Amino acid sequence: MAAIRNARERARAELTQEIKDEARRQLGEVGPHGLSLRAVARELGMVSSALYRYFPSRDRLLTDLIIDAYNAVGEAAESADPGHGEHRARWRSIWQATRTWAKAHPHEYTLIYGSPVPGYQAPPDTVAPASRVALALVAVLADAEPHEPAVTSPMPAALRKQAETLGTGLGVDLSAETGTRLVAAWTLLFGAISFELFGHYVGSVSPADAYFEHLIGQMADFVGL
Question: Among 119, 127, 139, 184, which residue's beta carbon has the most beta carbons within 10 A?
Fold first, then answer.
């Protein structure tokens, strides 16, 4: 009985992967807004009712694809960091690996960092995968004990409380100033990648290689590395 159960589980896992692979292919053609379970089932030679046993709704399929994409870019960032050595080099490796993944997987990147899908609400189980790149950057800062940048303006009390709560939640001892600068750097990382992938740098800093490399150094300075 165990062998039969294991065979069924393997068959289910394989078909689930085929469904997601076909859905990713269709993302490149119709985008997340146009993804439908019926179209995926049709391409796989399945009836829609059979596919619903694996994914009860389009939103569930989207959620799985979103989690897979977040985990993939997170794994790329984490794998690029050796976990030791010069901190600015580790910081640079994470930034470059994140950009490389995004350029190699533009449709999956668009799914997680492009326009929101109308009517879709991401569930809480997407939060942890979405945090992996940021946590890779946090790990570098936690090891580096960054110097405190000069404070140019007072921090609002509400923001300081948010930053302190964030540091506590992450389990790292970062000042509120450094924590908010990390959030800014994280925002600029994906902002720069999005501008590049979506064509907003054309006519200014395209190709963006030199600009992105310069930005890495600027943001390393900014967070105190």
Answer: 139
Tens digit of pLDDT for each residue in 117-166?
888 899 999 999 999 999 999 999 989 887 776 667 888 999 999 988 88
DSSP code of residue 154: P
Q: What is the pLDDT of residues 77-101, one digit of tens each?
A: 999 999 999 999 999 999 999 999 9
Say how far apart CA 129 and CA 151 lie, in whole Å. Answer: 32
How far is Cα 87 from Cα 138, in angstroms, rounded to an integer?
A: 11
Tell me phi and psi for residue 189, to 5 degrees.
-55, -55
Residue 145 DSSP SS3:
coil
E strand residue ranges, 44-161:
none
Helix and strand element counts for the chain (H, E): 11, 0
Q: Rounded distance, CA 143 to CA 162, Å?
A: 22
Where is 91: in which H helix or E strand?
helix 87-104
